[in-house]
Design goal:
The complex is a heterodimer.
Chain A lengths: L1 H18 L7 E7 L9 H17 L8 E7 L4 H14 L4 E4 L3 H11 L5 E3 L12 E3 L4 H5 L2 H9 L3 E7 L2 H16 L3 E8 L7 H10 L3 E5 L3 H12 L2 H4 L1 E4 L4 H7 L7 E5 L8 H14 L8 H20 L4 H8 L3 E4 L2 E6 L2 E10 L6 E9 L8
Parallel strand pairs in A: 1-2, 1-3, 3-4, 4-5, 6-7, 6-8, 8-9, 9-10
Antiparallel strand pairs in A: 10-13, 11-12, 12-13, 13-14
Helix pairs in contact in A: 1-2, 2-13, 3-4, 9-11, 13-14
Chain B lengths: L2 H27 L7 H17 L7 H19 L8 H23 L13 E4 L2 E4 H23 L1 H11 L1 H6 L4 H23 L10 H15 L4 H21 L2 H18 L10
Antiparallel strand pairs in B: 1-2
Helix pairs in contact in B: 1-5, 1-8, 1-9, 1-10, 2-3, 2-4, 2-8, 2-9, 3-8, 5-6, 6-8, 9-10, 9-11, 10-11
The chains are: A alpha/beta, B mainly alpha.
Amino acid sequence: MFKKSVSLLPSAALVAILGSVPSFADIKIGVLVPDSGPAGLFGPSTRNSATLAAQDINAAGGINGEQIELVFADVGVPPAEAAQAALRLWKGQGVQAFVGMHDSAVREALIGRFNGQVPYVYTPVYEGNSCAKGLYITGETPSQQLAPVIPFLAEKEGADKWYLIGHDYNWPRDTNALAKGYISDAGGEVVGEEYLPFTVSEFDSSLQRIKESGANAVLITIVGGASVGFNVSYAGFGLDEQAIRLGTLIEENTLAGIGPDNADRLYSSSGYFATIETEAAATFESSYTDAFGSDAPPLNGLGQSAYEGLMLLSALANKAGSLDVEAMDAVAEGTNWSTPRGDNTLTGRHMAQTIYLADGSGGAFNVVTSFDNVASSEICTE
Amino acid sequence: MSTVLILNLAWQISTLALVALGLAIVFGQLRIMNMAHGEFVMLGAYAPFITSSLGLSPWLQVPVCLITVGSIALLMERSIIRHLYGRMFDSLLATWGIAILMREGVELFFGRGYQSVSPPVSGTVSILGTDYPAYRIVVICIILLGFTALYWWSKTSKIANKIKAMVGNPDLAQAVGINTARLSSGAFVFGCCCAGIAGLLLAPTIRIEPMMGLDYLIRSFFALVVGGLGSLEGLAIGTGVIAGTQTVLGAIASQTYGYLSVLTLSILFLWLKPNGVRSSSR
């Protein structure tokens, strides 16, 4: 599977480059993807999604009439190295704008390095609270993923006793701080809250605490492989009968690891699932399959976010008439654009978007409901 | 102590003992610092996918696991490891390189994404008033039986004595007619197969991906550091202390304190009692 996708990548990139040969003065866009490191799993789907976005932008006339060309860099490395890699693209290769799908530490390093001099779109799910000149964010923030979903689950599943469990860093803590407000507004209560060190790979004692707490809903902000281990053990103990699970970073790869036996009543809240049943999403999925083959790395919210980011960059630059940060910042508020996720609006530099709630029962995401035009509580005023 | 805590303890200690057994043999007996130990656990966990991608019946998972892990271990021993007996630091570097190769190899065949395995026995069973995963109970029983057999074998078998002789004094052992090359090769493959079987048994209860091996390597080392090398009793003490501390403190305090104590214990042992609680061969 991986081998084939690797051999397909260069050919896909070649098509993109060849397709844009006639226009000599291409605009170069830097796309920062994790090819290595803990998020390396998402590198291939991110590259593919970005490549599709470039094709679509060029087919629609490019940015301000000029064709675009993508230049990739690996940012699955420590923040200082990632900033160096971005700097090489910017100063060395003449990249005029950046789209990044990487962790928050790298984002902060890049903001410091870019210093508002080059447009930068940050695309993955993140904890919120990041504002800078020239920074535009398309990723879902905790308020978007939870505000509509918690009341919905209270009504549909009677979820009113929540146990909050996550890794011990700021994304889970910020998410849970917001979640507590939404839970009490929906008439529920928090019966337990727990943060785990990254090094823990056995969850038995936490599962016992969840069982004894009498929770009927668990909010999971455990990330990466540990999320797989946690959910496998969770179902092993039969806790899936006691309490529903809601995750805000459980995408297609994680669900595949959890497996069909262990995913009953496991909900995920995200701006994108490969199984969204809208025309735009279906078109996107079929062009992804056409371009990269049926055994290409599966689509997921993180990888697909690179498409969103490039589309926002194109919409903003076309609206501003240039890729100049001052001009783009001036017109940013209220920019509208449509993507596979739905109709989006930029408010406070964050993307108001459709939020989907999917049920992973049986090992595949089944979109239960969607909430249109959910704005983030994060507002950047600069 | 609640029943669940006792069962959790039994599960954690027995699975850690199983995972660490292979390392105890290779590191403890042959003095090869096998950094690729976790990768053999990983290979074992992939056995169900190797079996299904070859179109074989799921009943053949155990032989497929043994053949895959055993042949890779044999190849590794004959080509590289046999030159490194008695050179512990060199063996560390060489096996670390091999570990990276194995991770990349598995990624090439099965991709980087997570895999999942269904347990052959699903659901929970009621034991002493608590519901516990049925598959875990089965695994605990298998491990107990396996260790009982191994203990009996190590006390009665001539091969076990020959291994002790070979480790104690290789030249003398060769002089009295022990085929040390074959013996160490066999012990290495056996140790790696133990790791593979551990991976296969645990597969339905864990995350499966090419990078998973590291977790198992580190915990196994901690257990050996505390328990000491060279004896099954030491292995039992080491796994009991490491898994027991994590489980009990994780239950009564928090997971953070549990892990902190495991690290503290390991450091204290390395510092004050570098040969562990029990070490038969030093």
